[in-house]
Amino acid sequence: MPRNNDRVTLQDIARVTGFTVNTVSRALKNKDDISRETCEKIQKVAREMGYVRNYLASSLRSGCTKTLAMIAGSMVNPFYAILADLIQTEAARLGYSLIILGSRDDPDTELSAVEMALSRQVDGVLITPCSFDSPALSTLRSSRVPFVLLSRYQEGTQDDCVYCDDEEGGYLAGKYLIEKGHRKVAMLAYHQVVFSSRQRFSGFRRACAEAGLPEENVFYACSENPEEILDHLKSWIRQGVTGLFSFCDVEAWITITLLEKAGYKVPGDLTVVGFDNILDYIQFPKPISSVDCHLQKEACLSIDLIRKRIHDPDLAPQQIRIPVSFICREP
To answer: What pLDDT is recorded for position 4?
Structure first.
């Protein structure tokens, strides 16, 4: 038996069970050439002895750690937390562990996260970069470690990516508001998000132009300051804006709270729609209509793509765009 401070080894289990080390190893992996009865017996003893597989030793033999890293913005944002949870579930289904690192949308923090992931010898990286000229992306490209961009797309690159159709999502949000009779509308964002902000506003404007709304009836603002945001909202309402497209659901809920604290009614004074449809995953007291970017599908596709890239480095670049839909939740 092992000493108190020693790890339980395959040799320890073999001595207790009377099987060979090779049989123990194969039984713990549920190999087909070991009977179900023998597997269960050996696994039971292993659990009782406190055996934990040494993945480091396995990785030294195979050259693979069966570990992936996900690097995204702050995990305080439910969008990233939900996506990380879905990706972790899908990764585990395929036998991968997942390291989750937050970049806080800061280039230096993002680079440190990439370096940390690479130092852990991960097999692949899933990243939502804070910019396309990020030093983190340069480091990943130089490392030759497979990586996939999450929720981002850049024309003219060879990077693998999985992203939703942001432009179409903005179009659907604008179309919904217009069909509800709103003739003056606005889009509000709290941050400029690389790729997504531009695409969503482009789609929003396309819907407005298609409906014949004059350009002066379509407003846009981006600010992180709550007082400045409220000033924009008050100004828009005074000018007759009745429909608002918020960059994402979290920002939509913050906006609704600001408005209600200021004495406005939602949807009475302003109808607010969002993007991401995270209400499918978490509860919130104020239901909102939202563009569904299908996070479950993004998780599945991104894990499948990184796995393919790991096993086939010469695979042609894959840039996968996920169709979106609109979820109407009438108040």
So the answer is: 47
